[in-house]
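Anyone able to model this chain together with IPE?
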Amino acid sequence: MTAPVPESSAVPRHVAVIMDGNGRWAKARGLPRIAGHRKGLERVRELVRACGEAGVQYLTLFAFSSENWRRPEQEVRLLMELFLNALDREVAKLHENGVRFRMIGDVRGLGEAIAERIRRAEALTRDNRGLTLIIAANYGGRWDIARAAAELARGAVAGAIDPDAITPESLEPYLSLSEVPEPDLFIRSGGEQRISNFVLWQLAYTELYFTLVLWPDFDRAQFEQALASYASRQRRFGLTGEQVEAARRA
Ligand code: IPE
Ligand code: IPE
Ligand code: MG
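re: yes, here you go
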């Protein structure tokens, strides 16, 4: 069976971002790396506002990958501190603005203090109708897929799932972003052109946008450029350009 062609419009419903380049931004100014992360947090505030205004419904931000634990101990510690403080300071404001807050990743690995605040923030904002802000922390795309596969395996062992009947659609309900539409637009700042184990499964048909701009410099104008690039593209999902045109006119 062919999957239906997802609807696409000029404004992405879901934007996923790898916020990269904080360290280089700081280094270029002779500042400690954490200064770049702090400035990066300001850009997150700005982007959340801009997404709300543009009509984006879901924003997923890569804040800390499962590989980032390999960084110097001090940077990891300061990042966790920054994250904890941000949760304490920002959640009330997000709630006031109707933002729904969610986390994906192995939350327990972030420590009890952070895990507890995440639970509270998710519970507080659960029924909000504005932008859904999803923070990926201690997250890895492979971890996510492996976890979903383990769920399928459990079902198979219990006799509830027939391994021969497994399709991509059978795995999807067990992924972290199962109830969220797939990202339409992926943005990576900082100049690297790679996915770095961010959402892997759901990026299959996402439009990719890479910019040299370092994350602490990624302002509203930069975001608008990314949106404009997205709006200029034709998403074909395997069809021909003519088929997509015809479907659009119908
Ligand atoms: C991204 O910026 C933020 C995190 C990974 C937490 P970096 O810290 O990776 O910045 P660069 O790539 O070293 O410039
Ligand atoms: C990806 O950035 C992770 C986050 C932005 C949180 P990295 O800076 O860790 O990616 P690599 O290691 O350069 O691929
Ligand atoms: Mg980096």
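The two ends are 22 Å apart (CA to CA).
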